Amino acid sequence: MSLTDSDYGAYIDGSLRAGSSSESIANIDPSTGAAIADYIPCTEKDVDEAVVTAAAAFDDGRWRTLSPAAKSRAMQRLADLIEDNGDELARLESLESGKLHSAARNGEVPFAAECFRYHAGWCSKLEGSSKPLSMAPAGEFHAYTVREPVGVVGVITPYNGALVQTSWKLAPALAAGCTVVIKPDEKTPLSTLKLAELVVEAGIPPGVVNVVTGTGVTVGAAIVRHPAVRKISFTGSTETGKQIGKLALDDMKKVTLELGGKSPVIVLADADLDAAIAGATEAIFSNAGQVCVAGSRLYVEAAVYDDVVDGITARAESLRIGAANAPDTEVGPLISSAHRQNVLRAIRRGVDEGATLAAGGSSVDLDGGFYVEPTVLLDTRQSMEIVREEVFGPVLVASKAQDMQQCVRDGNDSRFGLAASIWTQNLGKAHRLAAEIKAGLVWVNCHGIPDMAVPFGGYKQSGWGRENGLEGLYEYTELKSVICKL
User: Fold this and answer.
1) Are 348 and 395 in contact (CB under 8 A)?
2) Helical segments of 353-450, H only
3) Is 313 helix (H, G, I), strand (E, B) or coil?
């Protein structure tokens, strides 16, 4: 994909082109703060064209009525193409988001391919069932259910994992037989536009998958409001998710929302401390903390608290900060200058409220990029804003717990409930804690392990619905019941 001109901004009906806005948006490399290129984003007019195109593609059955085997083959080809184009996809993802190139190439690309391979297997397995009627004599009626695609799906993705977030929404939508309009974050459109090109190359008909770029206020809202869109799948902030829910209510759209998180990491006294220290460090500082399931709250039983926080602090201070494409970088940049300022303000508020700064806390002046030191704050209290609100940066808050039950109480004391991890060598304690933690996904002796077979989504203000697995696939279908008098 060319980055030397502005002729990108939309992919509609199989064609890459500029949007129709009168103003351009600069793609910025977070590692340097320099502009990569400018592009022309979309307007409501482009959104309407994309949705009308997707609706026509759904209605005429060019994808929906293909045999399950044909759909599966096309999705398998798309997975192969993602791997074949892995170097370019990783370059684009790393260049515009600041994600480490090694993580993009060795993690995001193969996982994106796996999204389509996994869901390709479901194309032939979307089954209904027969239902014996409870109030009619046997043999007088035949009743059954069928799963049907919901229609046009609006997909809205964040900047911190554009390729993967798009793939794990797009793959089940295609498996269900839907057509799709995708809006990537305005800061990171390139890997999504490239993926749309590969979709058509794989043999999925033009018009089935369309991309419109631009801001959430203009383009995202236009997708949510469009009456021909029957489902929205959104990943982003809780505040934006609430607005989407309100807008979607007007047309009673189906909605899946994967929202904010403030995931607790619970370390019990009997844990393998070396593994827990390494895991907790990775849980918060991976992708500079710009991860929805980042382990941003640490609760450690008192007997091992000092050992654990000392170990994490030492690791935080040793992590190499640098450009996303540098081979030895361990912590890359934040997405933008504005976000860096937000993270720094949150750290300062935490210190002002009485937290002890054990590591980091400052910006890093490096090649014009948007860097913040890996930060550890100790002596935090549940009432502190830094403990209660998502920072979405490399900031860990740590608290000492007197026992396992305090870990649970404090871990659950949050408006969020996306994920959590438990570190213990006692299997009984692990299962008891997993049952008590109010989160949609709980890891034991690991953190942040994704798999397409495992449903993912949040409790409380971390979202509605689930992604991945059969449960995620059903989110893209409507269930129809049929009763036939014999």
Assistant:
1) no
2) 385-388, 404-412, 427-436
3) helix
Does pTM surpass 0.85?
yes
Burial degree of 228 (CB within 10 A; 0-12, 13-18, 19+) = middle
Annotated catalytic residue 389: no
Does the annotation mark 44 as catalytic? no
The predicted structure's pLDDT at residue 136: 94
* Burial call 67-94: b when 16+ CB within 10 Å, e when fewer: ebeebbbbbbbbbebbeebbeebbbbbb
272-276 contact pairs (CB < 8 A, 24+): 272/423, 272/425, 272/445, 273/304, 273/307, 273/308, 273/311, 274/311, 275/423, 275/445, 276/308, 276/423, 276/445
Write down the catalytic residue from 197, 258, 301, 390. Answer: 258
Of 42, 123, 292, 407, the active-site residue reads 292
In the three-class reduction of DSSP (H, G, I as helix; E, B as strand; rest coil), residue 203 is classed as coil
If you classify domain 10-259+462-485 with CATH, what class do you get? Answer: alpha beta
Q: Residues near 364 by Cβ (< 8 Å), separated by ≥ 6?
A: 321, 371, 372, 373
Domain 264-451 CATH (choose: 3.30.70.360, 1.20.1530.20, 3.40.309.10, 3.50.50.60): 3.40.309.10
Beta-carbon contacts of 87 under 8 Å, excluding residues fewer than 6 positions away, are: 105
Q: What is the pLDDT of residues 316-355, one digit of tens each?
A: 999 999 999 999 999 999 999 999 999 999 999 999 999 9
Residue with the two structure tokens 């040793």: 318
What is the domain partition of the chain in residue ranges?
10-259+462-485, 264-451
